[in-house]
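Sharing in case it's useful to others searching the archive later.

Someone asked me privately for the predicted structure of Lysosomal Pro-X carboxypeptidase-like, so I'm posting the question and my answer publicly. Question first, with the sequence:
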Amino acid sequence: MIPKLSPIGDKIFHHHPDQSLLSTNDDTQDYKTFYYRQTLDHFNYRPESYTRFSQRYLINFKYWGGANSSAPIFVYLGEEAPIDGDLEVIGFLTDNAPSFNALIVYIEHRFYGESVPLGSFDEALKNAETRGYFNSAQAIADYAAVIRHLKKTLNAQKSPVIVIGGSYGGMLASWFRLKYPHMAIGALASSAPILYFDRITPSNGYYSVVTKDFREASESCYETILKSWSEIDRVASEADGLSILSQRFNTCRPLNKSSELKDYLDSLYASAAQYNQPPRYPVSVICGGIDGASFGSDILTKIYSGLVALKGNATCKVNQPLNQTQTDKGWRWQTCSEMVIPIGRGNETMFPADPFHIKSFVKECKKIYGVSPRPHWVTTYYGGHDIKLVLQKFGSNIIFSNGLRDPYSSGGVLDNISDSIVAVRTVNGSHCLDILRSSASDPEWLIKQREEEIKIIKGWISQYYADLAALKVS
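And my answer, the predicted structure tokens:
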């Protein structure tokens, strides 16, 4: 399973002392909801291509200087989830719009939230004909259509647009700038692993960073986790072993096989690293529990202590009933079609070896959807190979921001490509941290990262206004 590319982790990773990561009712009341009659298929001219569906977008006019002053427009490009969640925690636009006099727009990704073509989400995803329109190229074409509509409706043709996205949405933002440079003068792509395709990044990259995060937090914690997998299998092989594991880990349902527990812990550790945010730092919380060994000193009891430290006194800790979200279902399709991110685990991580095998991945996807993934399509359509050689002449005005504690940073752009395609990175940052809502408790390095991004964006906009003035004079 390819880990989700979402700016927002589970709530257990987002405990915040002043709750300022969440928007207030006043914030959400500033947004008005609109629906655009979107074209189903932007790239064909068959009669069914002209089918329309309602695409949701939200606008905050509160800070906008207006079309007469050509005030800028900040557009957040939604990712693999309903846009509501982004509105709650993605604060970069709201935090900075006042100083720019900017209009704020959030656009929902097709097939998610309320922006579902041809019926309900489940119906659309089960229908092989409809499902074919569920891809990134159609999504960024949607965004171009909505932006064009907005600028025309608001008579804001001269207002510069900055697109912003996080994770998969960050990839979309960078690709939008490359494919539609006439629609947006720049892009902020936060935690966008655009190089985790087609063998550009070693498949082991993601789990190598997870391992590094835990090892830096505590060598003894790392050692305990490393030893725990074989211990789980050893106990499971005993008579009544699965019952013993179910009791020791307080599972919500009895374990049927040891891999259920191992898969759960694998996902928990990976997510803790991906969303290792201040001030809580979930990796440190887990390792504090493991090293503290509140419930006993043997390996599995230490692992359980780490679980309790993170999740608290929940009635059960593991194997909760599955409630598949739109993100779970939609991301599975997207990774089984074009977003083939070959994440695997080698022998040098703290996890059991599990290399990525494209043949078995293709077989599984064909079994589910009846189509084969296209592992080379992203690099064919958007690029990625020899990126420094290609983009330094071809592209401009993109910020690739990354936190090096984020496992997905292993597939990110970490070095400047040119004067205007720049990498802004922090040693201690995690997934999409820079575009989350700011807080009084934010560390200095995070504040500086955001300030650097704002300075670059201000430079783009100033240059745009200078170019616009020069055109008027001539």
